[in-house]
Amino acid sequence: xxxxxxxxxxxxxxxxxxxxxxxxxxxxxxxxxxxxxxxxxxxxxxxxxxxxxxxxxxxxxxxxxxxxxxxxxxxxxxxxxxxxxxxxxxxxxxxxxxxxxxxxxxxxxxxxxxxxxxxxxxxxxxxxxxxxxxxxxxxxxxxxxxxxxxxxxxxxxxxxxxxxxxxxxxxxxxxxxxxxxxxxxxxxxxxxxxxxxxxxxxxxxxxxxxxxxxxxxxxxxxxxxxxxxxxxxxxxxxxxxxxxxxxxxxxxxxxxxxxxxxxxxxxxxxxxxxxxxxxxxxxxxxxxxxxxxxxxxxxxxxxxxxxxxxxxxxxxxxxxxxxxxxxxxxxxxxxxxxxxxxxxxxxxxxxxx
Length: 353
Ligand SMILES: Cc1cc2nc3c(=O)[nH]c(=O)nc-3n(C[C@H](O)[C@H](O)[C@H](O)COP(=O)(O)O)c2cc1C
Known about the structure:
Elements: H1 3-6, E1 13-15, H2 24-32, E2 37-40, H3 45-59, E3 64-69, H4 78-94, H5 114-123, E4 126-131, H6 137-145, E5 149-154, H7 157-166, E6 170-174, E7 180-181, H8 196-204, E8 211-214, H9 220-228, E9 233-236, H10 250-255, E10 265-267, E11 275-277, H11 281-289, H12 299-313, H13 336-352
Parallel strand pairs: 1-9, 2-3, 3-4, 4-5, 5-6, 6-8, 8-9
Antiparallel strand pairs: 7-11, 10-11
Helix pairs in contact: 2-3, 3-5, 4-12, 9-13
């Protein structure tokens, strides 16, 4: 049985988990409309995560995809962190602020988060998805035994094979077009930067586990193409950033259609891991400073978030983590359910042609 059938979905369309952007209202609206809604819990902490899941569950009895970050813990390097802060200091000064004296690992990896694991077992969202790596196999099978499907992101063939070995129910094949963080297990690894459609085809050639296409898919026609090359479903993030239920602020929403900020580009300056972002001022400044100097994820993100807060307090929105895929300029406004329905109908039309 396909994962779409197992989940009882009307459309093979998943709203991507988006930490900081997806909300319980968005996830519930998408799930109620026959897609799979998702919550990005990676930055929430166990109490916040439970609260978000319960808020979504109060709005739907359909499955919700609860997403966590499985990054290898940061390698701390005091000298590197101090130098990064020194390099960012003039930017803080521009907004009348001082760079923080030191940085911290602002959130815990799921790999070390037993309370989050216990919470997911108890709350049983229906789907648990893993980004940046894999926990031990016993956790994956326990989540499955508790009644969840488990998905994991892969950006390459090797990562996908590790997901197969770990026993996941589906692999989210994330192409280079995708908005937000690349799910690479090792951010230092050589990245072949495969496109979504290429990656899906490479995985389908040797992997039986269902594949979900993610990256740069903005219309039902795009989804139809991904299904045609072997994906069982498509996961869309950027397409939902400007929905009524999104937590994105007005400047971020406007930036999706601002030619000065497009196309979106990959940077590791904001968080310490490669992520696709609008080409905002932070990205430009980081190019000058040398983004390779940024500390490990999520330590660099501590600096990035402080700088964004300082800039925003003075009305400058150019330092935000404005994640966006390569199709940002095709983003639509409206309710999340309405966008899902439009995508579904376009998919249906494309498939009937
Ligand atoms: C704003 C934003 C936040 C994201 N946050 C997460 C996240 O918390 N967890 C995750 O697995 N993927 C995250 N992603 C990546 C998505 O899962 C997905 O790979 C991507 O959105 C697909 O590309 P698209 O944005 O072009 O549709 C995020 C993407 C965006 C745009």
